[in-house]
Amino acid sequence: MTKIKLIAIDLDGTLLNDETQVPQANIAAIEQVIKQGYRIVICTGRTLQGAKRFIEQLNIEAGQEEYTIFQNGALTYRLPEYECIQVFTLNAKAKQAGLAFVRKHQLELVAFDTEHFYVVDNPEPTHLVKDDAETLAMDMVFVSEEEFLANDRINKLTFIAPEAKLDQAQAAGIASLEEYGNPVRSQPWLIELLPQAVNKGVALKALAAKLGFEASEVMAIGDQLNDYEMLEWAEHSVAMGQAVEPIQKLARYQTKSNNEAGVAYALANFIN
């Protein structure tokens, strides 16, 4: 078996437990593999602002020059300076398609660039939007549709609604977005639209190439559909114990759940 050299780890539902905490066992396991020379990359759908406090608990920068992938592959940063080395943005047609999708299905729209959480044409957002802003440690910035469409730095859209309503929107019209970007259901209450051909797998593959690693030298650990391409590309794929069924079917290994420090278990049992 080819020796694993790079380990990619999702945050929510993977490194973090259901209380949105990093179990101490996971912290200790990551510190140990860093000391052994393994490279660690956090791959998350979160923004930098929403993930930084967890990354800093891991002391990743104590190892070699390390990187983190944010917003499901739209952004890659170099640590410890958090220097953005790769960014993908949505084009005008993708933003217009996203706006049409929101109007048709009466969803809430949030747009992101590297620094902002834009609430689009929605002066009274629901608790779902407010809670997401709090989770990501970002202030809500209210913008009009015109201001949103004029912003050429947008790298991700999120469509937000209660789960049942989002199920209906996804079944009825998500295919209409695929011509313009990469839609992914990353949470029961949230669909994301990324730039075309952008996902965690694409970003991880590019980063691995930069570091000189092949897929056979990469382990990836995740739980949700936005982790699919990352686990599909990495030869050593690990599904969390509570992962959704497609991830469990895809993965080479299955570890314990996120509430049982499944990352620590994977690092102790599946790396060589």
Structure description:
- There is one protein chain.
- This protein is an alpha/beta fold and 272 residues long.
- The chain folds into 2 domains: 154 residues, Rossmann fold (3-Layer(aba) Sandwich), CATH 3.40.50; 104 residues, Hypothetical Protein, Haloacid Dehalogenase-like Hydrolase, Chain: A, domain 2.
- The chain has 11 helices and 14 strands.
- Helix 2 packs parallel to helix 11.
- The longest helix is centred in the middle third of the chain and has 14 residues.
- The N and C termini lie close together (9 Å).
- This is Haloacid dehalogenase.
- One of its GO terms (cellular component) is cytosol.
- GO terms for molecular function: magnesium ion binding; phosphatase activity.
Question: Layout of helices and strands, plus pairs?
Answer:
Blueprint: E1 6-9, H1 11-15, H2 24-35, E2 39-43, H3 48-55, E3 67-70, E4 75-78, E5 83-87, H4 92-105, E6 108-112, E7 117-120, H5 127-135, E8 140-143, H6 145-150, E9 156-160, H7 163-173, E10 181-187, E11 190-195, H8 200-211, E12 218-222, H9 228-233, E13 236-239, H10 245-250, E14 253-254, H11 262-269
Parallel strand pairs: 1-2, 1-12, 2-3, 7-8, 12-13, 13-14
Antiparallel strand pairs: 3-4, 4-5, 6-7, 6-9, 9-11, 10-11
